[in-house]
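fold-stage: in
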Amino acid sequence: MVATAQAVIQHKSPTGIRFYGGARRAWAYQGPEFILSGPYETGKTIAALHKLNALLWKYPGSLALMVRKTYKSLINSAVVTYEKKVLEVPPDDPNCPIKKLGKSRPDWYDYPNGSRLVLGGMDNADKVLSAEYDFIYVNQAEELTLDDYEKLTGRCTGRAGNANYPQMMSDCNPGPPTHWIKQRAALKMFVSRHEDNPALFAPDTGEITEQGQRTMQVLNNLTGVRYKRGRLGLWAGAEGQVYEEWDDTVHVIDWFEPPANWPRYRSIDFGYTNPFVCGWWAVDPDGRLYRYRELYQTGLLVEEAAKEIKRLSEGERIIETVADHDAEDRATLKKYGIPTKPADKRVKTGIEAVQKRLQIAGDGKPRLFVMRDCLVSADPKLVEQHRPTCLAEEKPSYIWEPQRDGKPAKEEPVKTDDHACDEERYMVMYLDEPKDKYPPARVESYA
């Protein structure tokens, strides 16, 4: 049955799906802005998207925006969910009443009642902020800065005038307790729980479903801050975090193509059961280091990784590739035209070198950045397990091994989900330690 404008905005979507707990309260709320917060797999995005869809059906001619920090991350996440789990008929199907402009990179969806859903990212803010909206949905709001969010609220004030009330709706995973989301008094927060997700727990009996058993087993295996946030839903910081200087809002920046005259390097940490990690780095004229590409993949043979590295590096001039010490794996890379230099693997010295780069320098900037969306592709196995899929996701849960009293020893980090952090350390040590022990660097060209 195709959804119609008769949808009731209470706790049930036009497709008949009912919501419970925090999601149900968010559906009934008509205030100017709300956020649905909760641990992983509680159905936050599904609930927000269904409400957005219902509002577009209910108010003909209304204009809505679906937005995330970057457009690329939006179309690879919330847009997929919208098309597969919210629309009853795929928009590419000729029988679907909702039409989209664009195929792999859609700009908007048009409803038969004249409503329109626009897609955008804050990496192209001028485009998404050029209109007045009746409704705005922010996916993964914890990725936005307060400035990003407040710019969006200025475009959802009721001036569009196509609905009875304007509304900013968001979802988020918990972050550190100091995050601006926790500090914003005007933002009404609803909390979702695993027990309120009917896919995990039967709403009539409260009994866990088969899917719930699988999901909760994965979540119960999380550790540290990822367990606190992803399983318990707590806004918590990591105790004993190795890189206390790390701040997503400072060190993660929008992607750009490094100028051709900036020196480029690669660093590699081998793995198969654990991820194989290769980071591409560029250095600006002031010596700042930028991670502009990342391969982070489990189940990848070194031969396969070598071919992928060569393909991704095509047309680039790589000055040096620094790698873990495994002689056989390094020999395989060399066989495929990727000679490597063994990394300086001193852990504590390397961590101190990375910490130094993460600190804010005299010019107000750190000396190490990670570009947003530099990951080639997210490993689906790691996504399903809610494990880190890239360097930026490893950082918050990279902690010191605790002593018997539970306090961090600050001698050795916990050897779990640290593969990109190791690879990053190899790169920083190569660049920042004295080079008299190294022969002159060679330049590899992939023209």
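fold-stage: in (second)
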Amino acid sequence: MSRARLTHQAGAPRLLRKTFIGMCIVEIATVIACVMVYKAPDHFFPAIFSDRAGLGLLLAILLTSFGTYLLRQDYRSPKNRRSFIFTAALNVVAMLILIVVVELQLRLFVYAVPGISSIFPRGLLPKDWAQVKNDYHEILELADQENTYAGSFLIADPVLGWDVGAGRTSHEGLYASSADGIRSADPEYSYKKIPALRRVALIGDSYTFGTSIKFEDTWGQNLQRKLGADFQVLNFGVGGYGVDQAYLKYLNKVRDWNPEIVIFGLITHDLHRSEVVYPFISFPTWRFPFSKPRFLLLNDGLVPGNQPLPSPESIFSMPRIDELPAIDLEPRYFPADWKWHWYDHLYIVRFVVSLTPNWPSARKTSTNDRIRLNTAIIREFVNSATTHDSRPVAVFFPSFGAGEMDLHRDGSAASHPAQQVLSDAGIDYLDLTGCLQSLPRTQALASDGTHYSPAANVLVADCLYRYLMHLNAVP
């Protein structure tokens, strides 16, 4: 007797296609439902069909209904009952094997490629505060050994968050700061020892500082050459600064120099930075172990929201991230991103929930709030500079990678939030979009692909010099 006949007589169960497909559909629906509940806002069920969570759950319900329908067709037939059990068990075993294999591969892949988290919108969720602390402890240890942070010459500052240290040279030798804490060509140079008839102070972020280029190639130094020996251009720019930090820098370290002109340089991203409290949360690729000041715009005007600032050492000694001072003011801090569950120890779970970011709550600030806050800061800067007999002028640096170099058909520059802030604040400002249009992108960007090249800095200084003459601020 043949083996096939013996198997048939023994009643070997058949593999039921509908049962297997129905089981797969129900399992997919279960995963969708779990992800919806995991990522949904706190008040999930009252708004169950009014947002993404509700729509996702509705999809899971429809898939479950269809899968259950397929399962019932086979289960209701007495002759298929044994085959149904066999098929369902086979499906479960296959899914378990798949989960184990994928889990092992993910663990090996994530371990071999530490930067894997960068492919997700917010990194591999949930985030591990203990791991973050370990990473930044290494940065702090380097700071202890070399008296610097993150490979640069930044130092922690209790008011500004961070600042350029005095008399320092960066590791690669590209940057140097004077004995006064101002960017210079020589760390032993002192601007205060050089008499100057008229001073021009520059405040702002890395575009003002001149990241990725030499001191002599910065637009500040090009402007110095155009103004001549009767002027002294002081570059107080600091990489990573927001509008708020540049303003505080003026109040605390620039105003006493009594500059005749104060040039405030900014990019659109600086507006976002004014809302940030912990850059290592909002901008983790910066690797900054600092906190930063945060203004609140209340009825009485600008109010400091998180003074005094914690030191880097105290930040990364906190046992839990939710214990950090003023953590609720951090716009990109979402408790759900840091909340661990027992099932989060499976990498396959973390991988699935990390494919899309957790849905933010409604408390996050809007674009209008951001514009109002930064407008108020610029106004305070204008009032303070004017009161102390300084001429406030602003410069808008368009970003090549953000589409800000595009012009309208009539040749006018497109409107961006930073320009709206400057207009609303009532400050004279120069939009550099038209000045830089003649320079191809490949020639306009420095080696880092973000900041301006030496050639672009020459154009900036030339346009700014002509603009200052137009304002009758310089001869």
